[in-house]
Protein: AAA family ATPase
Organism: Catenovulum sediminis
Amino acid sequence: MINAIWGVREVPFKREPNQLLKQQQTIFDIIQIHAKQGGFSVVLGQPGVGKTVLREHIEKLDTTRESTVVSCSRTMHTYRQIVRQLADAFKLDCTDKTIEKELINAAFSQVKAHKTLYILIDEAHLLEIAALRKLRLLFERFPKNHNLVLLGQPELLHALSLTANQDIKSRITYSAHIKPLNDDDLQAFIIRELEQAKMGINTFDENAMALIIRSSEGNLRLCGNLCLASLIEAARETQKTVTITHVNQVLVQPHWRSHEQLIKQQVT
């Protein structure tokens, strides 16, 4: 529908991002530096601020000659299941009894091939500390040319800050907190998405743009979802300019309402 109304091939806010925002790019660059001498990195942020985009860009390093990237996302699993994911990524055929030794050998093989190893664990705040401790002991036996990167919500660092977990926290070589975007950054993100989709930067009128930015509260994912939904509302009316009316048609949907607003609506 959007393609037909605006005459574009790519739909903005839906395509795979090909450019990191400034704070994401800084983190990406530093993670690569730490990987050269053995790193343990922690990247924190609330849902929707850009951790997934950052992870996807690190995963793209796997397509280069110099890097191997192993990404684990099912972090509610046990230590044994996570190392099995690692073994699958290395294409290892081994038993549970020999899996740790085979993983270490595979890591050294990467170094001999002059490759840097990145091990990404997404949603790491869901990982049990006992499993994380075992992983830390395993990765200490890996060669120096690797970086273990934990991506999770801020409560991950709170858990690591407990006295009982200082053995893990003290080994962190780099940490970063992806913060919500300010209004100017959100507007720049929206304009960039429109330009790359070859749509006019005035597709959202001034009032619509202001309401989207205010309602997104610095959250990159919410901003993208709200922009896309507003475009759909405008397309339904065969309008090429998104107005505040179209944005409000999205914001009245239940999932955009706060818990207090939903309760109040049910009472009235």
The mean pLDDT is 90. The chain has two domains: 22-177, 181-267. The domain at 22-177 is CATH 3.40.50.300 (Rossmann fold).
